[in-house]
Amino acid sequence: MATCGPRSGKSDPTEGTPQGSPLSPFLSNVVLDALDKELEARGLRFCRYADDSNIYVRSARAGTRVMASIRRFITQRLTLKVNREKSAVDRPWNRSFLGFSFTGGKLPKRRKIAPKALARFKAQVKALTRRNQGRSLRQVITTLSAYLRGWLGYFGFCQTPAVLRDLDGWMRHRLRCLQWKHWKIYRRRKTELMKRGINPNHAHTTAWSTKGPWKISHTPGVRMALNNQFFDRMGLIRLSAHSSM
How far is Cα 157 from Cα 208, in angstroms, rounded to an integer? Predict the structure, then answer.
């Protein structure tokens, strides 16, 4: 499926659809319906969304043969171009498809979130939880939870709950850092820790510490004061509670 970029000068595109247009996946499905029928006729297992497709075979030799054959079908019968840079014969767990991949090893394969999709998620969370944005913890959690709901609507389909638990812990750690910075001074920090059940001596040593926000957020005093239940009450969504496993 041909695509075109932004307009350059006075020339207008004469074929294809603009990149990102909602019409693009629709046209891909119309044109590539013939590819689906060809793969079905050959008895091949495959998964396709718009112009992105994975075909599953039993060996690398079969994969090389099928790729060459399907490439000819696409270029000669459908008169379309194949992106050779993104095409490869490889094990499923070394590739990603629509943000997902598979676990490796001899155990039954499970759906996992692809590394690039995890990196994009972490970058977005970092932007939403940065410590210099001048918003209260509750405001940050409200915005973050809205993003997490949308993210879970797609990636909650994964089958690796341990990854989601790790992400939960990492996000709470960032939020503890944010709250610690908001408390700013020793007296405020000690008072807030004691208000949340930390004994005075422990609150004193924690508040008096010269550790930075990231390290101090790992200490028992801060973790007990801002525990998981605290964030539950604040409305923070737990990703691990929505795993499909």
Answer: 44
Q: What is the predicted pLDDT for the residue at 18?
A: 61
Q: Give the closest residue to 38 by CA, choosing from 99, 5, 80.
A: 80
Contact predicate 171/232, CB 8 Å: no
Neighbours of 76 (CB within 10 A): 9
3 state SS of 188: helix
pLDDT in tens, 167-178: 999 999 999 999
Residue 124: pLDDT above 60?
yes
Helix (H) or strand (E) holding 164: helix 161-183
Q: What is the pTM of this model?
A: 0.80
- Other beta carbons less than 10 A from residue 205's beta carbon: 12
Separation of CA 22 from chain center: 22
- Residue (of 63, 60, 35, 65) closest to 48 by Cα position: 35
Cα separation, 218 vs 23, whole angstroms: 49
Q: Is the pLDDT of residue 24 over 80?
A: no
